[in-house]
Amino acid sequence: MTATNNEYPKASNATLIGASITYVAGLFLLLSFAGPYWIESYPEMFSSFKHMGLWEYCFDRFRFPSYQFDKLFNGCHYIFSEEFHVIREWLLPGWLMAVQSFVTLALILSFTSQVLLACVIVRWPLRSVLRYEWIFVTFAFIMVATSSVFLFLAVAIFGGNCYRRDWLLYPSFNVLSWSYAFAVVAFILFGIAAILLYLESRKLYELRLEAKNLVAQMQHSQPEHALHHLRDQLQQQRQMGYM
């Protein structure tokens, strides 16, 4: 096989589809991670709470009942900003910190898996990818599947706690918004991609075992005949993998 003539085997269709779904899911996850609309208030309610994301809250002349000074919180601010220092414990309960952690870990894992899948698709570095492709795809599958699990936990925890009365005031005025929906979409897409990558990793591992068996058979036959037989077998298996 020579890299200059592009005679090396390309990535299978299953890998390409799984990687494409992973990239789309990663985009949804990134928008959800940065978006300040996990939950928002109905415009008709004229609530002092407007909307929030994992890292930002937006208020309109909000007065916190338990704060002893008459202070109005106004505008959108980073959750760890000085503006929200006095009410941060109320804005950031333990379950919300768990949601932040799960989404952050999912984002890191998904980005790492995208890098691995990109290496498999473009065949770089060529020698390592051709020799250890099943390991690359297996690690990508593990990270994508873990991202899906983390996002499932994040949306489940947030959806089960966002209407608690000890968190945002008047929870009946609020509704889940598009940033939360994007996290749900990302969790589903990561699950689909994980299934495809798992099936592909198993196929690549089986091809590797068969190739080892063919090499072992070369010791008991003529080298030239065994080499042609090995080449024909690998080409047939690759063609079946692309179908």
Architecture blueprint of SSEs:
Layout (H helix, E strand, L loop, with lengths): L12 H22 L4 E3 L7 E4 L3 E8 L8 E7 L9 H4 L2 H29 L3 H36 L12 E3 L1 H40 L5 H20 L1
Helix pairs in contact: 1-3, 1-5, 3-4, 4-5, 5-6
Q: What string gives the helices and strands in order?
A: HEEEEHHHEHH
β-strand percent reads 5-15%
Protein structure class = alpha+beta
What is the averaged pLDDT score? 89
> What is Rg?
26 Å
- Termini, distance in Å? 22 Å
How many strand units?
5
Helical coverage, percent range: 55-70%
Shape: rod-shaped
Poorly predicted segments: none
Major beta sheet, specifics?
5 strands, antiparallel
Mind explaining what this structure looks like?
- This protein is an alpha+beta fold and 243 residues long.
- It is built from six helices and five strands; from the N terminus they run αββββαααβαα.
- It has helices at 13-34, 88-91, 94-122, 126-161, 178-217, 223-242, and strands at residues 39-41, 49-52, 56-63, 72-78, 174-176.
- It has a five-stranded antiparallel sheet with strand order 4-3-2-1-5.
- Helix 1 (13-34) packs antiparallel against helix 5.
- The longest helix has 40 residues, at 178-217.
- The chain starts with 12 loop residues before the first helix and ends with a helix.
